[in-house]
Design brief:
Length: 410
């Protein structure tokens, strides 16, 4: 029986439509009444308070590898070898020594300074997307704009053959969705064809680039990444490209959509950003703090060594969800957590993770979303919400599938 730190009548249901639309009253109740909650559905705990989340995110007894070093079951390995191969070499599942080695090789390629060289390419792709949108009328921010540019950016940076964007997006969705604990077997199996198609595209690209290296090409740079004659192997390359697609595309789609939504809900903040477009990056960070697009569990960790925290026993193998969306609305983090202020500067911005597991694609996501936000507002001096957003049923994200806005270039 799982232990909890609050009243048993509290129920956590991140698929409740009312929760999806606005989870923050629920988060407040849990922070106050059950800050460490026994979530029976996944046989683990959810941690809601800022101080607890930040303490546990640094705790070495919690690890990112859900297999706890035991590897994937033989039946999964036999049924889905492509999936197992990419997951076993994922940065989140590598043992610490391998993780440190790969991060050392590739981190310089994903730093803000190196990625800045790609800004003209990013800008041109977003310019082309906006040019195809109507000058006046109603558009769906998610489908017509936010979802259309990130995969094109990744594909351009990797010089993936044109026409592969749908497969790349499906690949990213499949990798994200199958990380979620407790996914029904039939749903898991349904994602596997997309994984195989995506990996085939990436393998072909790697083979081509080994034969014909290209200048200003991220895939060539990944293949060439070297330190004391140590290079990435093909399995590591495949996993890194998969991680790049996730960190630089799917995350960017939701970040762009949510930031435009919050700016339209807060006209005073939209006016500030129009007056000073350099606030775009702060607006993105404030949106991640104020209305993150995670469905509710938060960062998944797994108990490697049993321990007791705040009177609750954590047992080996159990998942622990560090609920960062709740933590960043905690008054212990900022004094006015329910105020949306794009001028806010915090001492840290842990929206993309912490320490050695800080998201490798964070700088790319910020570069893309910042450019998209600035260009979208420059293109449309007039933007207004038409109706409330329509949310999807993604296992990880509070994904907005429909955000209709009326726009005008006048």
């Amino acid at each position: 029986m799982l232990e909890t730190s609050g009243p048993s009548e509290l129920k956590f249901d991140p698929f409740d439509p009312a929760f999806v639309e606005d989870p923050y009253p629920t988060y407040r109740r849990f922070r106050e009444q059950a800050p460490i909650y026994a979530w029976e559905q996944v046989k683990g705990h959810v941690v809601f308070r800022y101080r607890d989340v930040m303490a546990l995110i640094r705790d070495p007894r919690l690890v990112t590898d859900g297999t706890l070093g035991s590897g994937f079951p033989d039946e999964l390995r036999a049924a889905y070898p492509d999936y197992v191969a990419i997951r076993e070499n994922d940065l989140f599942m590598m043992p610490p020594s391998a993780h440190a080695r790969v991060r050392k090789l590739v981190t310089p390629l994903f730093g803000p300074r190196n990625l800045e060289a790609h800004r003209p390419r990013v800008t041109q792709i977003i310019t082309d997307v906006l040019a195809a949108l109507p000058e006046d009328g109603v558009i769906n921010v998610f489908r017509d704009f936010a979802q259309t540019y990130p995969v094109r950016v990744i594909a351009a940076m990797l010089n993936i053959p044109s026409g592969s964007e749908p497969e790349f997006l499906a690949f990213a969705d499949a990798l994200i969705a199958t990380i979620f604990p407790g996914l029904p077997p039939e749903q898991f199996a349904g994602y596997m064809p997309a994984v195989s198609r995506g990996l085939d595209i990436v393998r072909a690209c790697i083979a081509d680039r080994r034969e014909r290296p290209m200048a200003d090409d991220l895939m060539t740079h990944l293949i060439s990444a070297c330190d004391d004659a140590d290079r990435l192997n093909d399995a590591e390359l495949l996993s890194l490209v998969g991680g790049l697609i996730i960190g630089g595309s799917d995350t960017t789609v939701h970040l762009t959509t949510y930031t435009i939504l919050e700016l339209l809900r807060h006209p005073d903040q939209l006016a500030l950003l129009r007056a000073d477009p350099s606030l775009a990056r702060l607006a993105l960070d404030e949106t991640l703090r104020y209305n993150a697009f995670g469905r509710g569990g938060g960062l998944a960790r797994f108990v490697d060594q049993p321990f007791t925290f705040e009177g609750v026993e954590f047992h080996r193998g159990q998942p622990v969800f560090l609920n960062t969306p709740s933590a960043f609305r905690d008054p212990e983090f900022v004094s006015d957590p329910d105020v949306y202020d794009i001028r806010r500067r915090t001492n840290s911005s842990p929206w993309f993770g912490h320490g050695p597991h800080f998201c490798l694609g964070a700088s790319l996501a910020r570069l893309e979303a910042e450019t998209a936000l600035q260009q979208f507002l420059a293109r449309y001096p007039t933007i207004e919400l038409v109706s409330k957003p329509v949310y999807g049923n993604h296992p990880i994200f509070r994904d907005i599938l429909d955000l209709p806005v009326r726009v005008s270039t006048k």
